[in-house]
Amino acid sequence: MHILVVEDEKKTATFIRKALQAEGFAVDVLHRGDEVLPFVLGTTFDAIVLDIMLPGRDGLSVLRQLRSSEISTPVLLLSARGEVDERVEGLNAGADDYLPKPFVLSELIARVRALGRRSSAHMPVELRVGNLALNTLAREATREAARIELTSREYLLLEFLMRSVGRICSRSAILEQVWGYTFDPGTNLVDVYIARLREKIDSGFKPKLLHSVRGVGYVMKVEE
Hints:
Layout: E1 2-6, H1 10-22, E2 26-30, H2 36-41, E3 47-51, H3 59-68, E4 75-79, H4 84-92, E5 97-100, H5 105-120, E6 126-129, E7 132-135, E8 140-143, E9 146-148, H6 152-163, E10 169-170, H7 171-179, H8 189-201, E11 210-213, E12 217-220
């Protein structure tokens, strides 16, 4: 499951991210409300944990913006206030669940897991970029009907890149999402795995799909 956490309190965001990652979820974190829509338009998420009190654009406004843009990703609202009127307003705006602060992390995880199960029925089983296909149920990749053998880590890397199609993925983002590292281990781990993956999915095929962005990271896209 791929989760987006939008929380301006960085300590709280870190606690949530680490707790979800410990459960095996891939987690992206934003701290401002006005960053959410452009970010969500470029990546597929199973659920969004959205704080109401945010700089740039408040959570309820973000939620209305997502729903008016026909983004149906399940949303769990967080709020330190917890008034009934606010909860009702959030649910009316399109929230799927509501959790007042302070909360127990185990309850947040359970609610996120339930939202993810709800959305999985609507998630595409097959991801496609050009003539590369990835079956997320069978965890199998094919290109032009040729099956591509992947290790478990290569699969996670490919799925992350394909779910982020068209968006540049930094090395730090890849380390966090694929390996769960919140620090740079000071090795060329990402570059080694990218090279292995590129050999498997691009060598002998056209067009090339996995591209390097010098000094920034990598991007999966069909080269025009």
